[in-house]
Description:
Largest sheet: none
CATH class: Mainly Alpha
Number of strands: 0
Distance between the termini: 41 Å
Shape: elongated
Low-confidence stretches: none
Order of helices and strands: HHHHH
Structural class: mainly alpha
Amino acid sequence: MWNDFEDDDSWDEEDDGEGYRREQERIENHPVMQKAKDILHLTEAMVGALDEMSKDMYGTFMIEDATLICGKFSGAEGVDDYILKMENAVFMKVHARHLNSMTYSVPMVDTHAEEHLELLRDALEEFKLLFVEWVKGFDPSHKYDDGWGLFLN
C-alpha cells in the first residue's frame, strides 16, 4: 500500500516540484496579485505612520483586510473549481471594500496625510478593475457542488 508510488514510472518528483514552482510563480506574477501586494505595502506604510490610538482602532483591521486579499487570491487562483473561486473572490471584494471605507474613517481620528489615503484609494480602484476582468475568466462549467447551494446557477 505505501509503496504504490515506487512502481509508478509516471511519478517524477523533480517535475512535480518544478510544476509547483511554476504555478506559484504564475500566481505571484498575476496582475491581480501584483496590485494586491501594492495595496498591502501601501497599507503597511500608512498604518506605520498612524498614532498609537489609530493603530489600535484601525491598523489591525486594515492590515488584515490587505493581507486577506492576497491570500484569497492565491486560494482562488490555485483551484479550478468555480464555487471555490467565487467564494474567495467574494472575500476579496468584501475586504477591499472594507479597506476602502477605512480610508475615510481614519481621517476622523488621525491627522494622516490625505495624499497617502488617496494613493491607497487609487490602488483599490485599480485593483477593482483588474478584479472584474479576472472574475470574468472563471469557468462556471468547472464546479463541484459542496452542498451549500451557492454559485450553482
